[in-house]
Amino acid sequence: MPRSLKKGPYIHPSILKKLGRIRQGDKTVIxxxxxxxxxxxxMVGFLFGVHNGRAFTEVFITEDMVGHRLGEFSPxxxxxxxxxxxxKEIEQKAAEGEAEKTKxxx
Length: 106
Description:
The protein has 106 residues and is α+β, with helices and mostly antiparallel strands. The chain has helices spanning 13-21, 85-105, and strands spanning 29-32, 47-51, 56-60. The protein has one domain (13-105): CATH 3.30.860.10. The longest helix has 21 residues, at 85-105. The chain is elongated. The termini are far apart.
């Protein structure tokens, strides 16, 4: 459920403080652990380092991201692939296709 309109969007106070110190277009990374902070129009054009539990993921804020949370753009889980026999067969066919393309190119 979204936050009450009466309260307004949640933005961690340290983020606002850091935004006030840095000029627009500056490529300084603003590191934050506050994944629940809402992206506002004032943040557009800045580079944020959002912590995902292990490392900081760099996120460049654009117009389309306004209204979303910072944590949405820094995934906490790494998807490798689905396993099993079918996946291996698909990967082998793809590898064979690549080999044929390189042979044809030579």
